Amino acid sequence: MTTIPHDQLRELATGLFANAGAPTESAHIVADHLVEASLRGLDSHGVIRVLFYLDEIANGRLKPAAPVTVERDRPTTAIVDAHGNFGQVCGARMVAVAVAKARATGLSCVISKHSHHVGRLGAYTEAIAAEGFVALGTVCSHKAGHYVAPWGGREARLATNPISWAAPTSTAPVVLDMSTSMIAEGKIRALMHAGEELPAGCVLDAAGNPTRDPAAFYGPPRGTILPFGGAQGYKGFGLSLLTMVLGEALAGEEIADDSPYLNGLALVVIDPGAFESRAAFVQRMDRMVAYLKATPPADGAREVLLPGELELRIREQRMRDGIPLAPATWEQIQARAARFGLAA
Question: Is the pTM here over 0.85, yes or no?
Fold first, then answer.
């Protein structure tokens, strides 16, 4: 692996997006989001996505200078229309709108429309929790992003459709961010770039046979990812359906639409202050965390790690030592930088 300092990657990604037509503020938002994902070890939604976004800008499916507008604005709800802009730019606006509404009313729900790929879902719920609120987030995708077979099916009809929730503590928020499929498509891409095999039991090739070869998933023809749960995959399938109810059905979009790659992001925000003081809620969260972590470790385990805790430890290490990239990924990023005359 090639290891690059995080600040250099941030600067380079910002320059690439700006040269591709993104306003400076938007370029910073997206670059920060991708680098932060890589810092936490979530490489499938990290710097590797720079290449995908640049390709999407070049083919016109991602519109980096499009307006982001708030529609159907009500006291507790709104739709944020990205008009094809970066999902991260849309998501940042949604967080601001959702937090403001929850602060005023105690509860809010904000949904996106016409958003491109939103990246790491946990970034949005974590940002909300950092403001002292409890957050639930879901993401789904239109037909172009369907990689997952429904339970009992063989052809893809779902995206990897992650779910995230976050709650504040006196230190770092507790943040769960999980796919409703056995593996995220971005992780398959990252493993392919690294020349590594897929975990067993996650992917079928186009003929419906289990495979550990990332290239067999992409084809063509393309294979499918299985829903989360293994022999109980109906559980992952059911959770995946929830993301489509919130992110597409409520937004008035069609799941089988052949439109360009779009994500449906939904954010639900709860103000603990609507039930008791926020300070009391945080204290209760702290006691809950302490109680859970005080359990004796199971055989083969060192300790109980709460959702998001491992990622923060990886972040500390990568802030110090740099972000590892597969040589193929770094070479492609360098090639894109050279086109714009940027130093990589």
Answer: yes
